[in-house]
Amino acid sequence: MFAQRLSKRYSHVSSFKDAPLLIVKAERDTSAVRVFGAPNLKQHRLESTLSSRHIANSRRLFCDAIRLESFMSSIPSELKYTESHEWVKDNGDGTVTVGITDHAQDALGDLVFVELPEIGKQVAIKDACAVVESVKAASDIYSPLSGEVVGANDALDGAPETINEDAYGEGWILQLKLSDPSQLDDLMDAGGYEQLLADEG
């Protein structure tokens, strides 16, 4: 994950080795660097002056940190999540909307094709129900719940990149009518999904 690459990039700063790196913030006008450890975000501070080379790298570090912090804060709290990086929105009427997370679309890269499920198709939990294809690879989308496909986002046929641009909104993929709404309780909330990403890093 990005956090791991960030940690390796600045592993020459000894204090970075002592705490799991989740978010690093660098100030453009000072050599002070704040390091936050996962999972409790306990703050550490480097009081010593860094070398001129480290200071010169602070802008790149700052940009990396902002990107990481923005990414980690972009997990909508109102949705549910799966270990295979699908998100689920409870529509409140016995149906759910399903898509892939921002993390998933970022890992896949620019999407060029989406194979949508047929309306009326019956699916069970973890059944492959759609396919997204990027310039890197093709990936199955797995049904997070059991039920009947009652909707598919036909707009993705001509604009698969919508998933890259708005994964949690206009980039939704399908809708299910649930056969067992209690299965929603088995999905992760935003906090659980954020922890999954940290563990995978």
Fold and architecture overview:
This protein is α+β, with helices and mostly antiparallel strands. It has two domains: 2-72, no CATH class; 80-182, RNA polymerase II/Efflux pump adaptor protein, barrel-sandwich hybrid domain (OB fold (Dihydrolipoamide Acetyltransferase, E2P), Beta Barrel), CATH 2.40.50. Helices cover 25% and strands 28% of the residues. The protein contains six helices and twelve strands. The chain has helices spanning 2-9, 52-56, 58-72, 102-108, 162-165, 190-200, and strands at residues 21-26, 33-37, 43-45, 80-81, 86-90, 95-100, 111-115, 122-123, 128-134, 138-142, 147-152, 174-178. Strands 4-5-6-12-11-8 form a six-stranded antiparallel beta sheet. A three-stranded antiparallel beta sheet has the order 1-2-3. β4 and β5 form a beta hairpin. The radius of gyration is 20 Å and the shape is globular. It starts with a helix and ends with a helix. 29% of the residues are buried.
